[in-house]
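S.,

Sequence below, as promised.
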Amino acid sequence: MAKPKLAPHPKHPERICWGCDKYCSADDLRCGNGTIRTQHPVELFGEDWLEWELNNSRPQTADDDRHVSSG
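The prediction came back faster than expected:
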């Protein structure tokens, strides 16, 4: 059975544990994924988390190496 896709912009991500495919309520962690819930990417990286991930997934080219500054 295919795993359900992650909701890109849930209305209340803080109410659900996103650590496995059970999507438990934040106050009823049934999977044993620890004592705290796993946050949704929108909570960690912001509303544009999906575009950020898509931009980082493209292959790096030689031109990209020239534009990196050595701080």
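The mean pLDDT is 76.

Coffee later?
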